[in-house]
Amino acid sequence: METFEIELESFLKTILPIPELYEFLLIAQNLSKKRGEFLYFAGGVVRDYLLKTLYKKKIEKPKDLDLVLQGNLKNFLEELLKKVKGEILFESQFLTYKVKIYLNGKEFLIDFITARKEIYEDIAKLPKVFPSDFKDDILRRDFTINTLIIGLSPPYKGILIDLINGKKDLERGLIKPLHLNSFVDDPTRIFRGIRYKVRFSFKFAEEFFLALEKCFKKEALKKLSATRIANELRLYLNKEPEEKLKELLETTFYLNIFEEAGIKVKKKNFNSLIELLSELRDELNIKEREKFFLLGLLNSQFLEQALRLGFTEFELKEIKKNIDFINKKYLKDWKKLSLWEKIKVFEKIPPFYLLALAIYFPEIKEEVIKYFKEYKKIKPELTGNDLKNLGIKKGKEIGELLDLLKRKRIEGEIKTKEEEKDLVIQFLLKKSEN
Ligand code: CTP
Q1: In this predicted structure, what is the pLDDT of residue 3?
Q2: Which residues line ligand 1 (CB under 6 A)?
Q3: Which residue's alpha carbon is nearest to atom 16 within ligand 1?
Q4: Which of 151, 227, 299, 337 is the most exposed place for a label (fewest CB within 10 A)?
């Protein structure tokens, strides 16, 4: 075990997202000292601090802080929350607590973790956890670069502890699992390793490939649940910079991870998928974006595999139904359809399915993009009420007229409210002639 002294105050000032947290940490530090329980920072926050200060990498401030206590965390938090305004929001089966604290009118979330040992009894299943000391807590982790800890209270206050050469691997830019069974225990670590490699432009250590081989042999990725696979892939989309998405997907593909997890993806889709995600960033909500991302990865010949990405049987049926709808009825004459007819087809398909179709059928891609960015937003200026005031009475007729106004706008035939009114008047005249 190697130890290094660090400037605790400067460490805290570098990592803390808001200065008010400094006061909070002083209280937590004093409490752990009084109780004789060792409190420390671990994981991403320490790794990123070292990358920033020692190796001058450009790293964003951490979004979450992982504070670990070697001791009775529940009692510790109860005592802490008598001194600081806050509440426990969530207690997990893994001896962790999400805590909300209030500082000068601001709210802040902190993850508190009990130093623990993990025992994996089943391949790719969640582990059993037991409270333990900081050494076991280090040894349960995914990669050597995540094993560094910085002590906040005695006996290691202001000390960086490097139990297994994590600092050296950080320096060399190596993604190395702690042991060769690591991905059999928890195959989600493969996705995490890929994210770290791509995020920091690091390299995989030899041990990464050896652990991967072992994981493939035991078919551990096949045993990983669909929910957990989908969660990991969503992190590619939500946690990593957009410009890294292609490399993340390609790395996963070349390492044969998708195939081993029982998912047939189509590498040729990656470019369109990334293009559409970026073009339509503001047009989809987060849930639609995630679903589109996952569906868009798939090879449309093997859509049942959507089940491996957490889609339900019902959703799978809907995907197939929409594919049949557009494929059988429209695609063979797609070029002959008018713009309006195409829009009518698009309107019948829910957004994320439509986008997935734009990937599976490249001939509709450009129009789908335009549909989301332009056509979908075009609306007549006249409202249903305006039409009523102009003398249209029946609900059905109002609907048809609004549709006609929209169509004329999309086709560029009318541009102003006045022109819309003229069209309605013509409609009324024609009707009275009949
Ligand atoms: N961890 C692990 N195995 C997992 C998930 C997490 O060993 N399957 C450990 C890692 O040591 C990691 C820590 O738990 O450092 C915290 O996990 P998380 O917050 O997801 O990652 P960070 O290290 O904070 O990294 P980042 O948020 O920057 O991705």
Answers
A1: 95
A2: 43-44, 64, 66, 141-142, 146, 186, 188-189, 192
A3: 43
A4: 227
pLDDT at 274: 96
3-state secondary structure of 2: strand
8 A C-beta contact, residue 148 and residue 167: yes
Residues 6+ apart with CB under 8 A from 57: 51, 200
CATH 3.30.460.10 domain residues, the chain:
2-170
Q: Tokens 């470019």, residue?
A: 271
Task: Identify which of 134, 192, 228 to mutate to test ligand 1's pocket (most ligand atoms within 8 A of the CB).
Answer: 192
pLDDT interval class at 367 (50, 70, 90):
very high
Report strand pairing: 203-204 vs 174-175: parallel
Q: What is the pLDDT of residues 200-218, one digit of tens each?
A: 999 999 999 999 999 999 9
Instruction: Give the span between the Cα atoms of 20 and 23, in whole angstroms.
Output: 6
Q: Is the dihedral of CA 398, 403, 407, 409 positive or negative?
A: positive
The band of 244, judged by pLDDT with boundaries at 50, 70 and 90, is very high
Count helices and strands in the chain by DSSP H and E runs: 22, 12
Indicate the pTM of the whole model: 0.91
Atom of ligand 1 nearest to the CA of 63: 27
Confidence class for position 58, pLDDT limits 50, 70, 90: confident
d(Cα 431, Cα 434) in Å, to the nearest integer? 5
Beta strands in 236-307 (DSSP E): none
SS3 assignment, position 253: helix
Amino acid at 109: L
Tokens 């790794």: give the residue.
47
**Contacts for 205 with CB less than 8 Å, ≥ 6 apart:** 169, 174, 175, 176
Superfamily of domain 2-170: Beta Polymerase, domain 2 (3.30.460.10)
